[in-house]
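DM from R.C. (forwarded with permission)

"hey, sorry to bug you on a friday — could you get me a structure for this? deadline for the figure draft is monday and I only need the backbone to look sensible"
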Amino acid sequence: MIEFLLNQERVQLDGLAPNLSVLDWLRTRKGLTGTKEGCASGDCGACTVLLGSMAAEGLRYRSFNACLLLLAQVQGQHLLTVEGLTESGDLTLDRLHPVQQAMVTYHGAQCGFCTPGFIMSLTGLYLNHRDYPGDSVVIHALGGNLCRCTGYRPILDAARSLFQAPPVALLTSPAAAAFFVATLDPHPSLSAAGQTISLPQDLASLLRLRAANPAARLVAGGTDLCLEFSQQLKPCLDLISVAQVAELKSCTTLDGALSIGAAVPYSEFQTAINALYPQAAELWTRLGSEQIRNAGTLGGSLGNASPIGDPAPLLLALSATVLCSSVEGERELPVADFFTGYRQTLLRPNEVIRAVHIPAHSAATKLVCYKISKRIEDDISAVLCVMAYELDDNQIVWVRTGFGGMAATPAPARRVEQALLGQDFSLATLQRAAEQLAADFQPLSDVRASSAYRLMVAENLFERLWYQHQGDIKVRVAHAAL
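My reply, with the result:
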């Protein structure tokens, strides 16, 4: 059985398919059709909902794509939909939630299909900030909500107006306060037709489940796995969720080294990693959307072993390691050795990824992260290039690289590194090193880019590095909305 709060209703469920999404459950089982299905792939944001959970600072709400959120993973949380913002049936302007009032007042809806998703993203922003956080924060918070009517300016106007009056509490706050002090089942699960999704709450339980059922699929944020259910309509096997395992949800920094639990969402550790490596900020702000960053994890990305996953090239360049755990013990593997083939890793059937460790680096370490994609936000990389290097009297004395989209796995460019090491840092050196990319990689052609384009753009990024280092040209285009 799983248990959660839906708006103001406490819900207990079992006998439902483990791969049932929140979107399908809301629309087909609960009749709450304010949450829309646009793409069913986490791109449009029309299905955005909020999940509330207890944190050190109190109850915190984050936005999620309901199409990629398994119903079972709402366990123990407050699921807030657009219907929960107002009293049922009372839709007069002065009784709407402030976000809804602002969208009406500033004409933020055109055809209206995307409007509930925008409202929920804005509500999350409204709940998490007491003052207007600025246009940049708002735009990134709405980066995963797409309007086909091009009505963005009125929506931004509505967002700017929200903080001009004292904050208004959610109508659901009393129900949420009561729910989060209640005792819940310590071993939640959801089963139907002989298939189960288990939600262990601690590492020991997770490892026992994994040992007993090595064929089960592991799921963290589900941003990639759930596409198999929503897009490919694949049948569901047994699932084991790692999302609520306490030992996998911590992020610690010690003497410049960073340890990130496998189930910590991107949005929760990006501040810590950006503090050590400010140049990585563009990677995290351009990784999917706010909804995706609230769900996706390093454990899920590495375990999924996608050749176009954004985190792996950065981890390669920073010499990160993966901590794997099983009932037999633990072992630590370099990320550089972790991938063995297309969507294949060294992870054993009875193991789970527990954490990712990024070692401390010298203050002299320089880092560059370049993502090439068709859109600035909410898009998958065609090429991702990360390079970490150190100079001594303008000589390259240490260098590590990581590339995505160039091979069947995320991979370093070893011949490029050899061509750079010990050389003067100059445009000629970088150009000669870039010529080795064709020896390191033979990229595929696909819907995102041709092989020739990938090689050409990757080579050009070495010239971009030189001009960025010199400060001669501006190499980052500002967000169009700013």
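R.C.: lifesaver. The CA atoms of residues 385 and 441 lie 13 Å apart.
me: no worries. The longest strand covers residues 383-392.
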